[in-house]
Amino acid sequence: MSKPAALEKKPVKFSNLLLGAGLNMFEVTTLGQPLEVMKTTMAANRTDGMMGSVSRIWSRGGALGCEYSVYTCLLPSPGWKPPKHALT
Question: Which of 13, 27, 31, 61 could cross-link with 69 by S-S, CB 3.0 to 4.6 Å?
């Protein structure tokens, strides 16, 4: 019986790490976040179907609205200021 060949690790390129991070961020913002908002809205309002929850989300500000919208959690609001203890 012969010994199995030793596995050699390939070097990790920094550009591949940046590409993976960018693709993951694109996936979360285009698919993940909107589906999570829709799922949460459907769970909170069990009598609404899928179209009912979409219309409820859209009536609260749509995809790019300021309040209760799909992308509320991804970006800080325009008037947001960091807490004072974070600045010291």
Answer: 61
